[in-house]
Every structure is written in C-alpha cells, then in structure tokens.
Amino acid sequence: MSKVWFVTGSSRGLGRSFVEAALSRGDQVAAAARNIASLDELVAAYGDAVLPLGVDVVDKAAVFDGVKRAAEHFGRLDVIVNNAGYAQVGAVEELTEQQLRDQLETNLFGAVWVIQAALPYLREQGAGHIIQLSSAAGLIAMPLGGAYHASKWALEGLNEALAAEVADFGIKVTIIEPGGFATRSGKNPDPLNNGHLARMDPAYDALRQRLAAIAGKQPAGDPAAAAQALLKLVDSDNPPLRILFGQGFYPMIQQAYADRLKTWSDWQDLSAEAHGNLDREER
To answer: Which of 63, 131, 159, 183 could form a disulfide with 81 if both were Cys (CB 3.0 to 4.6 A apart)?
Structure first.
C-alpha cells in the first residue's frame, strides 16, 4: 500500500532525495520548502502525487497550516520527515545570541512544530512514523559546532521521550543520524565553509586551521542511497529508535561512548561521595 509523506526541507540535499525516492515508487508527498518555486520540477514530473507547500519551519502557524492542508488533501499522513535544518559554525565565545536562537528556532523548534501539528492526525489514525533527521553531531561534539550540537543533542532527547509517549498510539519514531553526504558537486560538505559562520575571533584561528586540514575529508555518502535506505526503514514492521546513515563516524562514536563509560567508572568513588549518606528523613 502506498504511503503519504510530509517532508520538510524538500528543496535540496537529503530532503530532496527522500521526496524523489518516495514519489518514484508511487507514494504521495507533501513537499515543504521555504521557496515553493524550488518544487516546480517535482510537480512537473509527478503531478498530483506531490503537494508543494511553501513553509518555513520557524513559522509555527505556517507549519500547522501546511500539515492540515496535507492531511486534508491526501486524506491521511503516514510518514513525517523532519529534515529542515542547517549548521551554524563558530566557537561558543564567538556566537551571537541571535545566531544561537536562530539555530534552535530552525533545528529544534521547527521540528517540534511539525511534530505537534502532525500528532493529532497520527493518533486518530492509530498509526504513523515520525522520522527525525539528527546527525552524528547529535551523538558526539567537536570544536566550533557548539550551536549545531546543542540543537541536535536536544532533538535526540526530545524524540527519545516522544517515542515512549506515542508508542501506545501505534506511532513509531526513528532518529536518523547521518554522517557527511555529498552535495550536488559530489563533494562532502565542508562545515567550516557553509555560509553560516559566526564572527571570527583571532584567538581561535589556530584551532580553525587545524580543523580546516581535516574538514570534509570523510568519504561522502550518496544521498540517493540514503533515500533507498529510508524507504526500507519506513517499510519495516519494527524500525529502530536510532540508526546511523553512513559508516564514517561509527568508530568515533564507539570510542566516545567507551570513553564516557570509562570516565564514569573511574570516578565512581567521587560519585558515591556526592550522593552522601543522608536517609530520607534528614533530606
């Protein structure tokens, strides 16, 4: 049975690949993007199977209206893909308040508005699958990515809680954690040259130079392959809560989690001291 999708960030990148893969197999898609003209090619190719929506996810009212239009147009919603987002680059000291707020407004709050708008329809159906695009950056952190990491780590916790909240309604939640994927030029995107840069304090120039030497050197993933993997994921009867897309960051994530467990173990004595020995009446 064909599925009905609602996908944010449909104009390019992974989001565009997800939309094209769903449409090419006969599914229907409500494709949301800030620039609705960027969806003209999809409409020309797939006609009524695609509903183009001009939606900026930071606009809560527009999100709720877009989800309502999609549900009414197609009669149901099966797969919700929270894909819209960007990466703000800069040391924590370099970030302006507005840059940090803008990062969270798009990556975190934008996803929340989509989830809140879609859930009443999914609960009424007793079924649905929410796909949250996080990142390997939602599991580990690197210098100059503090704002982006903050947004993605927040999404990890939010969607893990969400999964437990909606399981009894027949709704599934999967957090996808991609590594780097190729742009239209075929290259892995360089996070230090992506257009969302904080002011550059000379105090961090040496760090920037060290990171520039390794930035974008991970093997680039193929967005078309990621889209085919997503189709298998949404067709699964028992999808995972979390899944990595790509293998480049897997060793780093393994090491990061091993290091955390070792640190907690090494400091158990002090952890016990911090707990103290007060009984309940003395607290």
So the answer is: 131
Which pair of structure tokens corresponds to residue 95? 């970030």
Question: Do you know the residue count of the chain?
Answer: 283
Residues with active-site annotation: 134, 148, 152
Taking 3-state DSSP, the helix, strand and coil percentages for the chain, each rounded to the nearest 5, stand at 55, 15, 30
What pTM was computed for the model? 0.91
Element (H, E) at 52: strand 50-54
Q: Distance between CA atoms of 201 and 104, rounded to whole angstroms?
A: 22
What 3-state DSSP class applies to 9? coil
Q: How many beta carbons lie within 10 A of that of residue 83, not counting itself?
A: 23
Q: Pseudo-torsion of CA 273, 276, 277, 283, nearest 10°?
A: 180
Q: Residue 48 corresponds to which tokens in the numbers above?
A: 């009524």
Sequence-distant (≥ 6) Cβ neighbours of residue 177 within 8 angstroms: 134, 135, 136, 138, 139, 242, 243, 244, 245
Residue 182 three-state SS: coil
pLDDT along the chain (283 residues), means of 10: 96 96 98 97 97 98 98 98 96 97 98 98 98 96 96 98 98 94 52 71 92 75 94 97 91 95 97 85 56
Could you give the 3-state DSSP secondary structure of residue 132? Answer: strand
- What CATH number belongs to 4-251? 3.40.50.720
